[in-house]
Amino acid sequence: MLLAVPRLEATIRIGIVGVDSSHAPKMARIFNDANDPEHVPGARIACFFKGGSADLEMSRSRIDRFATEMRDKFGIPSVPTIAEVIENSDAIMLLSVDGRVHLDQAREVIRAGKPLFIDKPLGGSLQDALAIVQLARQAHTPVFSSSSLRFAPEIQNARAPQLGPIRGAISFGPAPIEPTVPDLYFYGIHPVEALYAIMGSGCESVSRSYTEDTDVVTGVWKDGRNGVLCGLRNGKTSYGLIVFGRNLIQYETPSPPYAALARKILSFFQTKIPPVSLDETLEIMAFMEAADESKRRGGARVALSDVMRIAGGQPGPK
């Protein structure tokens, strides 16, 4: 089925799979409203597949409102299948709030070979994340997944050269728990991603201290540095970073910059080069899975290599 979607030269048609996340109308505003102060030219949302998870309250309670906003405010048509999103788009954003459905939804897009952005988390489990990467590499389909927090200007400030070599960092932020997915996959992924934006990949093991109100997850990197995540619940929460440079200690309070993420997504769709490697994204998934395993073991230190092996090992050849 073909839709009456304007096909402007040099304008990428983006299809959305899953509009039960607030990110769907945010991206529609940024890409489709030329009068918006955060407008990012060069792409338009062409259509969307509604999606949704009946057993997830956050999805069930919001999806109709977001779908209506997409249609009525931004004039974006809904289509009944993912196949029709693929047919009428040059690139796809998978925005379903429920990480459990990402593997099944991504499989169809990856098979079609169109560039795919998957909103956090990459998958609903480490095993699903590994499967998505395996499929993408076998099909040579470009895939990118990230939290928007990684691209906050405050993150760049915290990596300024004047700090000198980074000795370690503490990242904190909201970490409410959704029982359908591993604890940190739901919202804690934002401060975890911020921690990785500062520390880079190379974490070897984690240990986790859990209480009703707080998580403290300490990662040990292969070069001996420590990175700490503080997940906050049941009270005032915000995002923050303390970065320990050799020359300076920097404190930043980033917030998710959706326009910055949109620009990264557009650049990815244009170049097919992801701004965050799938290897690093998989390590982030393993960091959070190892934190869950540490919780199950009463705070014992857990190697990321162990949870990767249990989940199915390293993905296939690049």
Write the layout of secondary structure elements.
Layout (H helix, E strand, L loop, with lengths): L11 E6 L5 H10 L10 E7 L7 H4 L2 H10 L5 E2 L2 H6 L3 E4 L7 H11 L3 E4 L6 H14 L3 E4 L6 H5 L8 E9 L8 H4 L2 H11 L3 E8 L3 E8 L4 E7 L7 E6 L3 E4 L5 H14 L6 H19 L5 E2 H8 L7
Parallel strand pairs: 1-2, 1-4, 2-3, 4-5, 5-6, 7-10
Antiparallel strand pairs: 7-11, 8-9, 8-13, 9-10, 11-12
Helix pairs in contact: 5-6, 6-11, 11-12
Q: Helix content range of the residues, please?
A: 25-40%
Instruction: Determine the oligomeric state from the structure.
Output: single chain
Poorly predicted regions are 4-9
CATH superfamily of the largest domain: NAD(P)-binding Rossmann-like Domain
N-to-C order of helices and strands: EHEHHEHEHEHEHEHHEEEEEHHEH
Average pLDDT confidence is: 93
CATH topology of the largest domain: Rossmann fold
Number of helices, where a helix is a run of at least 4 consecutive DSSP H or I residues: 12
Task: Give structural notes.
With 318 residues, the protein is α/β, with parallel strands linked by helices. The chain folds into 2 domains: 137 residues, 3-Layer(aba) Sandwich (Rossmann fold), CATH 3.40.50; 125 residues, Dihydrodipicolinate Reductase, domain 2 (2-Layer Sandwich), CATH 3.30.360. The chain is built from 12 helices and 13 strands. The chain has a 7-stranded mixed beta sheet. It has a 6-stranded parallel beta sheet with strand order 3-2-1-4-5-6, sandwiched between helices. Strand 1, helix 1 and strand 2 form a beta-alpha-beta unit. The protein is globular, with a radius of gyration of 19 Å. 48% of the residues are buried.
